[in-house]
Input
Amino acid sequence: MDQVLRVALLQMRSGIDPQSNRAEMSALLRQAASGGARLVATPEMTPRLDRDRQRMLGAVEREDLAAEIRAWGRLAREHGVWLLLGSMAVWAGEGRVYNRSFLFSPNGDVRAQYDKINLFDVALGPGENYSESAAVAPGDALVTCPIAGAAVLGLTICYDLRFPEVYGALAKAGANLISVPAAFTRPTGAAHWEVLLRARAIETGAFVIAPAQGGVHDDGRATWGHSMVVAPWGEVIASLDHDEPGVLLADCDLAQCAAARARIPAWRGGRAFRPAP
Output
């Protein structure tokens, strides 16, 4: 079974127009496929990034989800790649959406989907306060899926990165490759993005792939970019050092996962203990 998987991360600057965003992504996808990628991953909220709650909800409620999914599936089939649509907003009813990842096979069919569990409700300071749960309904289930060769992909989204128990559970479920499509803010990205990605890779003994949104978007928000691939021993094997749209290619030798886990088996979990009083 093939142990080396070439992945491509598409760094984007999605706006509020899905057609424009898909056109941008399609151009980057062609570049990734021509570079030999077998798995291509896009950032969180690839089709539309919009923090105007009413505008976003109105657009999602009206759109034809089936047609949107077919369009992304055609792109996967056209290029013959596994395509992880990092996430998109999917109508959940009662004034909320799901923040959902879709994984397409090279045949264009949906093989897995994951709803973001941990929602970004934070107060960073003036102009940087977020309440994702006001518009997004949380998921409640972890998802893994076998893909090309020996790879088993575990799905997470953005703020999930701060919850190591999610990643430990994915590793125990067999994931040796974990995706973190994101739209990290600039303050949290500068402070925490790389160190958290490296920590999750070390803890799980898995490759971590993190395609990111970057730059100043139509809705006025600014995201960090700096898409990154981290190996199981914690070293960054590929990264973009900017927030501009682009393609990041990396070869993931999945044999490194077994080697890292054999050297330090902490990913299996520690001894039981009593909670502190």
The radius of gyration is 18 Å. The first helix runs from residue 18 to 34. The chain has one domain: 4-266. The chain has six helices and 17 strands.
